[in-house]
Write a structure and sequence with these properties.
heterodimer; A: 82 residues; mainly alpha; two-stranded antiparallel ribbon; 3 helices; 2 strands; 67% helix; elongated; B: 475 residues; alpha+beta; Immunoglobulin-like; four-stranded antiparallel β-sheet; 16 strands
Chain lengths: 82, 475
């Protein structure tokens, strides 16, 4: 559970910041999706954008958590104490 | 998250169990005892003020529109008489810097004032705990109820509590969305069950977060999720006001009989009743000294003062004090005198400078912005009379909340003039795009790019004037 919070919470905060910065600088109506202008309403684009940012940031957090796994957990056994 | 159990190690090797902290299982639920007193009153005053602002401000009208509205769909932020456009993002950055500096200053002077009294996490927890007490009683009653088997009475109490919590959560979510979508339209569509899918989603999302954070997560948000709790220490110094236990006066702690002179018996003022621990929303013992979990809510001060009154001891065994004051036995006067020190003066000076600069900038801000974009299709072309013509697109943004007419002119080359419409009409707070054709005699400038300026002036408002640079191409 703690690990889930480590993944979801910092990514939520950063996604919020990314959302604010990105959409302040770029009008969602000027975006192109697969070569077509975005058809969704601004509210929908903002919401989808937020969850996309959150997902990306969560992926980064999850990767960090994954790399933090210690050798003991990876080896699945306890080496003798030195 | 479940981890695979370690394989049994070879005989002789020590097995070191992997300690996995789980947020919910290993955390003991904290049953904070309710408290009354000076600081609790202050907290309730702050709850009322902050919530009156949060729930009320979005209903306020200004110039026939919502006074405070972050209209993300129209990409305009309304703040009473001011309208901010995406071009004003600079002011948002300034606002963030001001908030950060103010937090530094308050923290250096009096510790976690924000956390203890004004943070939404504290404020909503306070409200939710009040509801909880209403349905389930105070600390002892709640502990008993949680330990008891499920009965109709328990179910009714729990259901009642959650119903009120959910209602508060949803109202909070609705209000939150009302800052981004005009709240009266939102209320009308809610009344007619015609809320848009995204509005509904965000109301529930924010409502759920309120319910979860104030009802369940509570102190865990402060302990495990709040970044401020972790870096507040760097803003503290020995002259920062913090909630402290006067160990010199209190120790050795212990129970005593009222008939015996406790001082003669070698005891301090602390009767070790443990109430300071019971009232603590984060479940710490302030007598162990300053800890990062302490949100500075002063519940322990109120609680201890009541005990001191009962024992007829002087108040303030736990009190707001500073590290220096405690060590040097300073009184109120010396503590106040030490509020002004290099650190606070520096924070204060930078903060005032930025606030003054921002206010000046906002006051002098022109209610007009102009963007000039060259027409890329036709760079320069020769027209009748041997003149050269360039085409531009002018975005005239009328930031005022009144319709305005603007006069366009161009300078920079001899005889240069606009041949299209020279007056632009713009509705209140809107952008008007106009195509502008400009002609000049080719002899007026050098070949290539020549700097010119577009001048836009509001008719009947001479002070509203913008000069925008552009370039004129001569073949």
């Amino acid at each position: 559970m703690k690990r889930l919070i480590w993944i979801l919470w910092p990514s939520f905060v950063v996604a919020g910041i990314a959302e604010a910065v990105f959409f302040t600088l770029i009008d969602p109506q000027e975006l192109y999706l697969f070569g077509e202008p975005v058809q969704y309403s601004r509210a929908a684009t903002y919401s989808i954008g937020f969850f996309a940012f959150w997902a990306l940031c969560a992926a980064s957090s999850a990767f960090t958590c994954f790399l933090q796994t210690g050798s003991r957990e990876l080896n699945r056994c306890t080496p003798p104490q030195a | 998250m479940a981890q695979p159990a370690p394989k049994p190690a070879a005989a002789g090797a020590k097995v070191i169990p992997i300690k996995e902290d789980s947020l919910y299982e290993s955390e003991k639920k904290i049953y904070a005892r309710s408290v009354s007193g000076t600081f609790a009153n202050w907290r309730w005053i702050l709850v009322w003020i902050t919530q009156a602002i949060f729930y009320g401000l979005c209903w306020l009208e200004w110039n026939g529109r919502q006074a405070v509205l972050f209209d993300i769909v129209e990409r305009k932020f309304y703040l009473f008489g001011l309208v901010f456009w995406p071009q004003d993002v600079f002011y948002l950055a300034v606002l963030l810097i001001i908030s950060a500096l103010a937090l530094f200053l308050f923290t250096a002077v009096a510790g976690r004032l924000f956390c203890g009294y004004a943070c939404p996490q504290t404020v909503y927890t306070e409200i939710f705990m009040w509801v909880e007490k209403l349905f389930e009683g105070d600390r002892a009653a709640r502990m008993k109820l949680d330990a008891a088997p499920l009965t109709a009475d328990k179910l009714a109490r729990k259901a009642g509590k959650h119903a009120v919590w959910v209602a508060i959560g949803l109202w909070t979510g609705f209000t939150f969305v009302g800052y981004f979508t005009p709240i009266k339209t939102l209320a009308a569509s809610f009344a007619g069950w015609q809320l848009g899918p995204w509005e509904t989603f965000w109301i529930f999302f924010y409502g759920f977060a309120t319910w979860g954070n104030a009802g369940f997560m509570r102190e865990q948000v402060c302990k495990y999720m709040c970044p401020y709790a972790r870096f507040q220490g760097v803003m503290f110094d020995p002259d920062t006001l913090i909630v402290t236990y006067d160990a010199e006066r209190g120790e050795p702690r212990g129970a005593r009989s009222k008939k015996v002179d406790y001082k003669a018996a070698g005891k301090g003022d602390c009767v070790d009743c443990g109430i300071c621990v019971q009232v603590c929303p984060t479940g710490i013992d302030i007598r162990n000294g300053l800890q990062y979990e302490c949100i500075g809510c002063s519940a322990c001060i109120d609680a201890c003062d009541q005990v001191m009154d009962k024992m007829a001891y002087p108040r303030g065994l736990i009190r707001y004090s500073t590290e220096h004051a405690l060590a040097e036995h300073w009184g109120r006067k010396e503590i106040v005198a030490h509020i002004l020190r290099p650190r606070t003066l520096l924070y204060g000076a930078i903060l005032s400078a930025i606030v003054i600069a921002a206010v000046t900038g906002l006051t002098l801000r022109q209610p007009l912005k102009v963007d000039v974009i060259r027409d890329r299709a036709t760079l320069a072309r020769e027209v009748e009379g041997g003149l050269i013509e360039n085409v531009y697109r002018l975005q005239v943004m009328n930031l005022a909340e009144a319709p305005r007419r603007f006069a366009l002119s161009v300078t920079g080359l001899e005889g240069i003039q606009i041949v299209t419409e020279r007056v632009v009409e713009a509705p209140p707070a809107s952008t008007q795009a106009v195509a502008v054709r400009v002609r000049v005699n080719p002899e007026a400038g050098k070949r290539g790019s020549n700097p010119i300026h577009f001048e836009v002036r509001a008719l009947n408002h001479d002070e509203v004037f913008v000069r925008e640079k552009a370039s004129f191409l001569l073949p």
